[in-house]
Write a structure and sequence with these properties.
alpha/beta, Rossmann fold, three-stranded parallel beta sheet, two-stranded parallel sheet, 6 helices, 5 strands
Length: 159
């Protein structure tokens, strides 16, 4: 049984939906690693350093959460961190289909690795980082969806 879990993602940027999943996860696990990925298949808006900084500021109140940046396979990170549990959030059926593919691949690569799926809260079920970026780019108000420091960064990019 693991008391430590990894909550991985690109988090570009971290949203209130991500923080909701993370906060709820702290009620289940004694230690959570928020692992922010460097994904060569994505073109992030913010650097890995900035995404880590945003996350540290946004979850400073969660004392059992550690934030790291990483690249490479998630199974290797789990082995390095000596845990066999991943946390993933699900907003809808599309998320489930995508996450199920990841789960199946991870299970083939490391059968000891388990994935725990948490459903998004009603308030955050429509949130995605890419949708928030699109709304901001087109002059919409994204303040209700983002931690304060992330929103401030957005206002400097999209006044």
């Amino acid at each position: 049984m693991s008391t430590k879990a990894i909550y991985p993602g690109t988090f570009d940027p971290i949203t209130n939906g991500h923080i909701n999943i993370l906060t709820r996860s702290t009620l289940i696990f004694s230690k959570i690693i928020l692992a922010i990925s460097i994904n060569p298949n994505k073109n992030p808006m913010f650097s890995i350093e900035k995404r880590v900084e945003f996350a540290k500021e946004a979850v400073a109140h969660l004392k059992n959460v550690t934030i790291i940046g990483f690249s490479g396979l998630l199974i290797h990170l789990a082995q390095e961190q000596k845990t066999n549990v991943l946390i993933r959030g699900l907003r809808n059926i599309t998320d489930f289909e995508n996450e199920n593919k990841r789960y199946q691949m991870n299970a083939k690569l490391d059968p000891s690795l388990e994935t725990i799926f948490l459903l998004a809260s009603q308030e955050s079920s429509c949130l995605s980082s890419s949708l928030i970026k699109e709304v901001a780019q087109n002059g919409g108000n994204v303040e209700p969806f983002l931690p304060k420091t992330v929103f401030q960064a957005f206002t400097s990019i999209y006044p």
